[in-house]
């Protein structure tokens, strides 16, 4: 039985990947006991005792390395934790920085390098796309209001206005673009990215790189229904050869290590790279459901094993997300608030 | 040939595994798709349709051309016969 901790158990309207990862781990060959890592006592995963045996609150990564590391070591001590699978963007830089130290304490991970993690910054996308033989929408990186005004006179509306790592708004007019620009600067600072909108099919690929140019499987999907936040609600597997080739080139060229998701727009014969996520997406259970159990393979890699590499999945499998509800005692919430664990 | 990759059910449900798009076709559309996949030309299919539905070859060929134009709009038909 492997004790593994998973974060991102916030299964809300913008769900974290945690529960999908955990479902995959539970369906894998290696028996697991799961510790859920949360940042808020209300994260739904805390209450799903069939999926998550024990749950702990973590300090926010912004509080610094020391409290974060101490908390992880406390959990290791108490639970006999062996592996951690972090699933949220905001905590990943810290986990990557701590990787060696965690390893020296016997806590295993399977993460991208700091350099690889930095590729997800939106101002790196054109460079990544070029390296793997696909395109990016026309993109400008702005560091002042003057540059915005100049950019708006060059780009065709609608455009996307994005922060370097977070937030993306679609603007149809100059006024909207300016409003979103100010909102992003106020929250995240410069640079702000503006990008022409490409029309086409929204297709994503998930995979796990082995860190040496190969991978432990890829699955490509198309989003059929999305929520108002742009999150997938239903989807279908696809076997778009050029898209999968681009994903393989990505892994090979950057020698990607760990989980990743490439978000693209496919327009005729052109593929546009929109985003790189250095972790599993929230729909990761889709890959598990079509027979490519990427979370279980990543766990095996973290444990030093040699995971399967087959990835012959069928096109035309359907993914359906649904809402669910649960009634439980206040006691669990109480424990999370007072003790930070249950 | 893009048609080769399509999954076509007997009920007229058509799935494109590369794009993830799905379509429905009626009985006539299904007949045209199947015959195209067998490698028949639009003219040959018009002959079959004219016998099957009791219409002239010209009318059948016009319908087939309309159908192929619709398929071209969906990116499922590009070459003249393929």
From TrEMBL, chain A:
Protein's UniProt keywords contain ATP-binding: yes
Residue ranges constituting the ATP-grasp domain according to the UniProt record: 126-303
This protein's UniProt keywords: ATP-binding, Nucleotide-binding
One matching Pfam family: ATPgrasp_Ter
Entry-linked InterPro entries: ATP-grasp (IPR011761)
One GO MF term: metal ion binding
Protein name per UniProt: ATP-grasp domain-containing protein
UniProtKB/TrEMBL annotation, chain B:
A Pfam family recorded for this sequence: PqqD
Protein's recorded name: PqqD family protein
